[in-house]
Design a protein that fits this description.
51% helix; 2 domains; 394 residues; 8 strands; alpha/beta; eight-stranded mixed beta sheet
Length: 394
Protein backbone atom coordinates (compact mmCIF):
# COMPACT_ATOMS: atom_id res chain seq x y z
CA UNK A 1 0.00 0.00 0.00
CA UNK A 2 1.19 3.47 -0.88
CA UNK A 3 -0.04 6.78 0.56
CA UNK A 4 -0.46 9.95 -1.51
CA UNK A 5 -0.99 13.55 -0.40
CA UNK A 6 -1.58 16.75 -2.41
CA UNK A 7 -0.31 19.89 -0.69
CA UNK A 8 1.17 23.36 -0.86
CA UNK A 9 3.07 23.34 2.47
CA UNK A 10 3.37 27.11 2.46
CA UNK A 11 4.99 26.68 4.93
CA UNK A 12 4.97 23.16 6.41
CA UNK A 13 3.39 23.60 9.87
CA UNK A 14 2.22 21.52 12.85
CA UNK A 15 -1.18 20.91 11.26
CA UNK A 16 0.53 19.34 8.25
CA UNK A 17 2.72 17.26 10.55
CA UNK A 18 -0.38 16.05 12.45
CA UNK A 19 -2.08 15.10 9.17
CA UNK A 20 0.94 13.11 8.00
CA UNK A 21 1.25 11.30 11.31
CA UNK A 22 -2.45 10.41 11.46
CA UNK A 23 -2.55 9.21 7.87
CA UNK A 24 0.66 7.15 8.09
CA UNK A 25 -0.33 5.37 11.29
CA UNK A 26 -3.79 4.39 10.02
CA UNK A 27 -2.39 1.59 7.80
CA UNK A 28 0.92 -0.13 7.10
CA UNK A 29 2.06 1.97 4.13
CA UNK A 30 5.18 1.29 2.11
CA UNK A 31 5.80 5.02 1.88
CA UNK A 32 4.30 8.49 1.45
CA UNK A 33 4.39 10.49 -1.78
CA UNK A 34 3.48 14.19 -1.75
CA UNK A 35 2.60 16.15 -4.88
CA UNK A 36 3.31 19.76 -3.95
CA UNK A 37 2.75 23.11 -5.68
CA UNK A 38 5.85 24.81 -7.05
CA UNK A 39 6.39 28.56 -6.68
CA UNK A 40 2.80 29.78 -7.02
CA UNK A 41 -0.28 28.53 -5.22
CA UNK A 42 -3.92 27.77 -5.92
CA UNK A 43 -4.84 31.19 -4.48
CA UNK A 44 -2.57 32.80 -7.05
CA UNK A 45 0.07 33.96 -4.58
CA UNK A 46 3.81 33.19 -4.57
CA UNK A 47 5.07 30.82 -1.92
CA UNK A 48 7.01 32.20 1.06
CA UNK A 49 10.09 30.16 0.15
CA UNK A 50 11.25 28.31 -2.94
CA UNK A 51 9.91 24.86 -3.84
CA UNK A 52 13.10 22.93 -3.00
CA UNK A 53 13.19 24.37 0.51
CA UNK A 54 9.51 23.54 1.10
CA UNK A 55 10.07 20.03 -0.25
CA UNK A 56 12.98 19.65 2.19
CA UNK A 57 10.64 20.72 5.04
CA UNK A 58 8.13 18.09 3.93
CA UNK A 59 10.71 15.27 3.94
CA UNK A 60 11.89 16.26 7.43
CA UNK A 61 8.22 16.40 8.47
CA UNK A 62 7.46 12.80 7.46
CA UNK A 63 7.09 12.57 3.66
CA UNK A 64 9.31 10.15 1.70
CA UNK A 65 9.10 11.57 -1.82
CA UNK A 66 8.00 15.05 -2.97
CA UNK A 67 7.01 15.68 -6.58
CA UNK A 68 6.09 19.03 -8.11
CA UNK A 69 2.50 19.73 -9.09
CA UNK A 70 2.88 21.44 -12.49
CA UNK A 71 2.06 25.13 -12.54
CA UNK A 72 -0.61 24.41 -15.19
CA UNK A 73 -2.63 22.89 -12.32
CA UNK A 74 -1.28 24.52 -9.14
CA UNK A 75 -2.57 28.02 -9.97
CA UNK A 76 -6.03 27.05 -11.18
CA UNK A 77 -9.40 26.47 -9.52
CA UNK A 78 -10.05 23.62 -7.10
CA UNK A 79 -11.08 21.07 -9.74
CA UNK A 80 -7.97 21.54 -11.90
CA UNK A 81 -5.72 21.64 -8.83
CA UNK A 82 -7.24 18.29 -7.82
CA UNK A 83 -7.07 16.94 -11.37
CA UNK A 84 -3.32 17.49 -11.65
CA UNK A 85 -2.59 16.22 -8.16
CA UNK A 86 -4.72 13.07 -8.25
CA UNK A 87 -3.63 12.04 -11.76
CA UNK A 88 0.03 12.60 -10.84
CA UNK A 89 -0.34 10.36 -7.82
CA UNK A 90 -2.23 7.79 -9.87
CA UNK A 91 0.83 7.59 -12.15
CA UNK A 92 2.83 6.70 -9.03
CA UNK A 93 0.50 3.81 -8.19
CA UNK A 94 -0.79 5.10 -4.86
CA UNK A 95 -3.50 3.03 -3.17
CA UNK A 96 -4.74 5.71 -0.73
CA UNK A 97 -5.17 9.49 -0.96
CA UNK A 98 -5.26 11.37 2.32
CA UNK A 99 -6.61 14.91 2.76
CA UNK A 100 -7.93 17.16 5.50
CA UNK A 101 -11.63 17.88 5.93
CA UNK A 102 -13.72 20.12 8.16
CA UNK A 103 -17.03 18.23 8.10
CA UNK A 104 -18.80 14.91 7.51
CA UNK A 105 -17.14 12.81 4.80
CA UNK A 106 -20.49 11.29 3.74
CA UNK A 107 -21.70 14.68 2.43
CA UNK A 108 -18.50 15.12 0.42
CA UNK A 109 -18.82 11.65 -1.13
CA UNK A 110 -22.43 12.28 -2.12
CA UNK A 111 -21.55 15.66 -3.64
CA UNK A 112 -18.56 14.22 -5.53
CA UNK A 113 -20.79 11.51 -7.02
CA UNK A 114 -23.11 14.16 -8.51
CA UNK A 115 -20.21 16.22 -9.84
CA UNK A 116 -18.57 13.17 -11.44
CA UNK A 117 -21.80 12.24 -13.25
CA UNK A 118 -22.17 15.73 -14.76
CA UNK A 119 -25.85 15.14 -15.54
CA UNK A 120 -27.75 17.57 -17.75
CA UNK A 121 -30.07 18.46 -14.87
CA UNK A 122 -27.17 19.38 -12.63
CA UNK A 123 -25.43 21.39 -15.39
CA UNK A 124 -28.62 23.35 -16.05
CA UNK A 125 -29.08 24.08 -12.34
CA UNK A 126 -25.47 25.25 -12.11
CA UNK A 127 -25.95 27.59 -15.09
CA UNK A 128 -29.03 29.08 -13.42
CA UNK A 129 -27.05 29.79 -10.26
CA UNK A 130 -24.17 31.33 -12.22
CA UNK A 131 -26.66 33.59 -14.02
CA UNK A 132 -27.42 35.16 -10.63
CA UNK A 133 -23.91 36.61 -10.60
CA UNK A 134 -22.50 34.16 -8.04
CA UNK A 135 -18.94 32.85 -7.97
CA UNK A 136 -18.46 29.33 -9.30
CA UNK A 137 -17.92 27.90 -5.80
CA UNK A 138 -21.10 29.52 -4.45
CA UNK A 139 -23.13 28.51 -7.52
CA UNK A 140 -21.85 24.95 -7.25
CA UNK A 141 -22.77 24.75 -3.57
CA UNK A 142 -26.29 26.10 -4.24
CA UNK A 143 -26.78 23.67 -7.12
CA UNK A 144 -25.69 20.72 -5.00
CA UNK A 145 -28.15 21.76 -2.28
CA UNK A 146 -31.01 21.06 -4.68
CA UNK A 147 -29.68 17.56 -5.42
CA UNK A 148 -28.78 16.71 -1.82
CA UNK A 149 -31.79 17.84 0.24
CA UNK A 150 -31.00 15.28 2.94
CA UNK A 151 -27.58 16.82 3.64
CA UNK A 152 -26.35 20.09 5.10
CA UNK A 153 -24.28 21.38 2.18
CA UNK A 154 -23.09 24.55 3.93
CA UNK A 155 -19.69 23.00 4.78
CA UNK A 156 -19.04 22.46 1.05
CA UNK A 157 -18.08 26.14 0.86
CA UNK A 158 -15.18 25.62 3.27
CA UNK A 159 -11.83 25.55 1.42
CA UNK A 160 -10.57 22.17 2.63
CA UNK A 161 -13.94 20.52 2.00
CA UNK A 162 -14.09 22.07 -1.47
CA UNK A 163 -10.70 20.58 -2.33
CA UNK A 164 -11.63 17.23 -0.77
CA UNK A 165 -14.81 17.13 -2.84
CA UNK A 166 -12.73 17.86 -5.96
CA UNK A 167 -10.29 15.03 -5.14
CA UNK A 168 -13.21 12.62 -4.77
CA UNK A 169 -14.77 13.91 -7.99
CA UNK A 170 -11.59 13.15 -9.96
CA UNK A 171 -11.26 9.67 -8.41
CA UNK A 172 -14.86 8.85 -9.35
CA UNK A 173 -14.72 10.45 -12.80
CA UNK A 174 -11.65 8.45 -13.86
CA UNK A 175 -12.65 5.34 -11.84
CA UNK A 176 -9.26 5.25 -10.16
CA UNK A 177 -8.43 2.40 -7.73
CA UNK A 178 -7.64 4.90 -4.96
CA UNK A 179 -9.16 4.76 -1.48
CA UNK A 180 -9.87 8.16 0.13
CA UNK A 181 -8.46 8.65 3.62
CA UNK A 182 -9.97 11.76 5.20
CA UNK A 183 -8.41 13.29 8.34
CA UNK A 184 -10.50 15.72 10.42
CA UNK A 185 -8.79 19.04 11.01
CA UNK A 186 -8.14 19.80 14.67
CA UNK A 187 -8.85 23.06 16.49
CA UNK A 188 -9.94 26.44 15.16
CA UNK A 189 -7.20 27.35 12.69
CA UNK A 190 -8.42 30.91 12.18
CA UNK A 191 -9.50 32.03 15.68
CA UNK A 192 -6.06 31.87 17.28
CA UNK A 193 -5.99 31.52 21.03
CA UNK A 194 -2.96 31.01 23.33
CA UNK A 195 -3.97 27.40 24.01
CA UNK A 196 -4.40 26.50 20.32
CA UNK A 197 -1.75 24.11 18.96
CA UNK A 198 -2.59 24.61 15.28
CA UNK A 199 -2.93 27.65 13.04
CA UNK A 200 -3.86 27.97 9.37
CA UNK A 201 -1.09 28.43 6.84
CA UNK A 202 -2.54 31.85 5.91
CA UNK A 203 -2.41 33.01 9.54
CA UNK A 204 1.16 31.75 9.88
CA UNK A 205 2.18 33.55 6.67
CA UNK A 206 0.71 36.82 7.94
CA UNK A 207 2.66 36.49 11.19
CA UNK A 208 5.92 35.56 9.47
CA UNK A 209 5.69 38.43 6.97
CA UNK A 210 5.01 40.78 9.89
CA UNK A 211 8.08 39.34 11.71
CA UNK A 212 5.95 38.15 14.63
CA UNK A 213 7.76 35.51 16.68
CA UNK A 214 4.38 34.03 17.68
CA UNK A 215 4.36 32.26 14.31
CA UNK A 216 7.07 29.83 15.39
CA UNK A 217 4.88 28.16 18.00
CA UNK A 218 2.83 26.73 15.12
CA UNK A 219 5.82 25.37 13.22
CA UNK A 220 7.88 22.21 13.80
CA UNK A 221 11.53 22.88 14.62
CA UNK A 222 12.58 21.34 11.30
CA UNK A 223 10.64 24.06 9.45
CA UNK A 224 11.88 26.86 11.69
CA UNK A 225 15.49 25.78 11.14
CA UNK A 226 15.10 26.00 7.35
CA UNK A 227 13.15 29.25 7.07
CA UNK A 228 15.27 31.93 5.37
CA UNK A 229 15.30 35.56 6.44
CA UNK A 230 13.93 36.78 3.11
CA UNK A 231 10.34 35.68 2.49
CA UNK A 232 8.34 36.34 -0.68
CA UNK A 233 4.78 37.68 -1.00
CA UNK A 234 2.60 38.92 -3.86
CA UNK A 235 3.25 42.59 -3.14
CA UNK A 236 6.82 42.08 -4.38
CA UNK A 237 5.34 41.82 -7.87
CA UNK A 238 3.11 44.90 -7.52
CA UNK A 239 4.87 47.13 -10.04
CA UNK A 240 5.22 44.35 -12.59
CA UNK A 241 1.55 43.35 -12.39
CA UNK A 242 0.22 46.93 -12.53
CA UNK A 243 2.50 47.65 -15.48
CA UNK A 244 1.30 44.54 -17.32
CA UNK A 245 -2.36 45.43 -16.81
CA UNK A 246 -1.93 49.08 -17.80
CA UNK A 247 -0.18 48.14 -21.03
CA UNK A 248 -2.75 45.45 -21.93
CA UNK A 249 -5.88 45.68 -24.05
CA UNK A 250 -9.06 43.77 -23.12
CA UNK A 251 -8.24 41.30 -25.90
CA UNK A 252 -4.75 40.74 -24.46
CA UNK A 253 -6.23 39.82 -21.09
CA UNK A 254 -8.85 37.53 -22.64
CA UNK A 255 -6.02 35.32 -23.92
CA UNK A 256 -5.17 34.44 -20.32
CA UNK A 257 -6.62 31.35 -18.69
CA UNK A 258 -9.93 31.93 -16.85
CA UNK A 259 -10.20 35.66 -17.70
CA UNK A 260 -13.63 36.19 -19.29
CA UNK A 261 -17.12 37.54 -18.63
CA UNK A 262 -15.92 41.14 -18.41
CA UNK A 263 -13.23 40.57 -15.79
CA UNK A 264 -10.69 42.01 -18.24
CA UNK A 265 -12.47 45.39 -18.27
CA UNK A 266 -12.72 45.49 -14.48
CA UNK A 267 -9.00 44.82 -14.10
CA UNK A 268 -8.02 47.51 -16.59
CA UNK A 269 -10.24 50.15 -14.93
CA UNK A 270 -9.08 49.28 -11.42
CA UNK A 271 -5.38 49.31 -12.38
CA UNK A 272 -5.56 53.00 -13.31
CA UNK A 273 -6.11 54.12 -9.71
CA UNK A 274 -4.69 51.27 -7.63
CA UNK A 275 -1.52 51.89 -5.63
CA UNK A 276 -1.29 48.33 -4.32
CA UNK A 277 -2.54 44.90 -5.27
CA UNK A 278 -4.91 44.94 -2.31
CA UNK A 279 -6.44 48.15 -3.72
CA UNK A 280 -6.80 46.45 -7.08
CA UNK A 281 -8.44 43.31 -5.66
CA UNK A 282 -10.86 45.30 -3.50
CA UNK A 283 -11.88 47.40 -6.49
CA UNK A 284 -12.65 44.33 -8.61
CA UNK A 285 -14.05 42.02 -5.90
CA UNK A 286 -17.72 41.07 -6.22
CA UNK A 287 -20.09 38.11 -5.77
CA UNK A 288 -18.93 36.75 -9.12
CA UNK A 289 -15.23 37.48 -8.58
CA UNK A 290 -14.05 36.58 -5.05
CA UNK A 291 -10.63 37.63 -3.81
CA UNK A 292 -9.01 34.26 -4.61
CA UNK A 293 -10.27 34.34 -8.22
CA UNK A 294 -8.83 37.83 -8.75
CA UNK A 295 -5.49 36.84 -7.21
CA UNK A 296 -5.33 33.84 -9.56
CA UNK A 297 -5.99 36.12 -12.51
CA UNK A 298 -3.14 38.40 -11.43
CA UNK A 299 -0.89 35.35 -11.17
CA UNK A 300 -1.94 34.17 -14.64
CA UNK A 301 -1.06 37.61 -15.99
CA UNK A 302 2.32 37.60 -14.26
CA UNK A 303 3.16 34.14 -15.65
CA UNK A 304 1.58 34.81 -19.07
CA UNK A 305 -0.51 31.68 -18.48
CA UNK A 306 -2.53 31.80 -21.69
CA UNK A 307 -5.25 29.41 -22.84
CA UNK A 308 -2.85 27.40 -24.99
CA UNK A 309 -1.05 26.24 -21.81
CA UNK A 310 -4.24 24.69 -20.41
CA UNK A 311 -3.80 21.02 -19.52
CA UNK A 312 -6.04 18.05 -18.79
CA UNK A 313 -3.39 15.65 -17.49
CA UNK A 314 0.23 15.67 -16.26
CA UNK A 315 2.93 14.70 -18.76
CA UNK A 316 5.74 14.04 -16.27
CA UNK A 317 6.63 13.61 -12.60
CA UNK A 318 9.19 16.19 -11.45
CA UNK A 319 11.25 15.13 -8.42
CA UNK A 320 11.92 17.81 -5.79
CA UNK A 321 13.11 15.82 -2.75
CA UNK A 322 13.32 12.29 -1.32
CA UNK A 323 14.81 10.19 1.49
CA UNK A 324 16.01 6.58 1.42
CA UNK A 325 12.47 5.23 1.32
CA UNK A 326 11.67 7.72 -1.42
CA UNK A 327 14.66 6.52 -3.45
CA UNK A 328 13.28 2.97 -3.33
CA UNK A 329 9.85 4.25 -4.35
CA UNK A 330 11.35 6.10 -7.32
CA UNK A 331 12.93 2.89 -8.63
CA UNK A 332 9.61 1.12 -8.32
CA UNK A 333 7.60 3.94 -9.95
CA UNK A 334 9.95 4.09 -12.94
CA UNK A 335 9.00 0.51 -13.83
CA UNK A 336 5.28 1.14 -14.32
CA UNK A 337 4.63 4.89 -14.53
CA UNK A 338 2.86 5.98 -17.72
CA UNK A 339 4.71 9.32 -17.68
CA UNK A 340 8.46 9.95 -17.34
CA UNK A 341 10.13 10.89 -14.06
CA UNK A 342 12.34 13.92 -14.59
CA UNK A 343 15.16 15.47 -12.60
CA UNK A 344 16.87 17.44 -15.40
CA UNK A 345 14.53 19.75 -17.38
CA UNK A 346 17.10 20.29 -20.14
CA UNK A 347 17.05 16.57 -20.94
CA UNK A 348 13.30 16.22 -20.44
CA UNK A 349 12.55 19.10 -22.81
CA UNK A 350 14.01 17.08 -25.68
CA UNK A 351 12.04 13.95 -24.81
CA UNK A 352 8.57 15.21 -23.91
CA UNK A 353 5.73 15.63 -26.43
CA UNK A 354 4.77 19.20 -27.35
CA UNK A 355 2.08 19.39 -24.64
CA UNK A 356 4.59 18.22 -22.04
CA UNK A 357 7.19 20.72 -23.23
CA UNK A 358 4.71 23.57 -22.82
CA UNK A 359 3.80 22.34 -19.33
CA UNK A 360 7.47 22.26 -18.35
CA UNK A 361 8.11 25.66 -19.96
CA UNK A 362 5.42 27.16 -17.71
CA UNK A 363 7.06 25.60 -14.62
CA UNK A 364 10.46 27.02 -15.62
CA UNK A 365 8.96 30.42 -16.36
CA UNK A 366 7.25 30.45 -12.96
CA UNK A 367 10.59 29.76 -11.24
CA UNK A 368 12.41 32.45 -13.21
CA UNK A 369 9.74 35.05 -12.45
CA UNK A 370 9.51 34.01 -8.79
CA UNK A 371 13.24 34.58 -8.26
CA UNK A 372 13.04 38.18 -9.53
CA UNK A 373 11.38 38.97 -6.19
CA UNK A 374 14.58 38.27 -4.22
CA UNK A 375 16.71 41.23 -3.24
CA UNK A 376 19.80 39.05 -2.83
CA UNK A 377 21.61 39.10 -6.17
CA UNK A 378 22.65 35.45 -6.01
CA UNK A 379 19.03 34.34 -5.72
CA UNK A 380 17.63 36.96 -8.10
CA UNK A 381 19.10 35.34 -11.21
CA UNK A 382 17.16 32.97 -13.47
CA UNK A 383 17.72 29.40 -14.61
CA UNK A 384 17.32 27.75 -11.22
CA UNK A 385 15.33 24.84 -12.64
CA UNK A 386 18.30 23.89 -14.82
CA UNK A 387 20.95 23.60 -12.14
CA UNK A 388 19.06 22.75 -8.93
CA UNK A 389 19.10 19.03 -8.16
CA UNK A 390 16.49 17.25 -6.02
CA UNK A 391 17.06 17.47 -2.26
CA UNK A 392 18.31 14.15 -0.88
CA UNK A 393 17.77 13.54 2.86
CA UNK A 394 19.75 10.59 4.22
Amino acid sequence: MLLGIIAEYNPFHLGHQYHLQQARQSLDFEGTIVVMSGHFTQRGTPTLTDKWLRAHMAILGGADLVLELPCAFSVRSAYYFALGGVLSLACCGITHLSFGIESDEVTLLAAAHILAQESENYQETLKQQLSLGLSFAAAQSNALTQFLPQFDTTPLKQPNNLLAMSYLQVIKRFQLPITPLAIKRQGDYHNLQPEEKFASASAIRRMLLAHESEAYRYLPQTTTALLPQELIDLERFKQTILTLIRRSSPNDLRQLIEIKEGLEHKLIRAAQDSKSLDDLCLAVKSKRYPYSRINRSLCHLLLNFTNDYAAQKPYYLRVLAFNQTGARLLKKIKRYSTVPIITKPSVAMRQLPLEGQKMLQLDIRATDIYHTAYQESARNKGGWDYYRSPIVVI
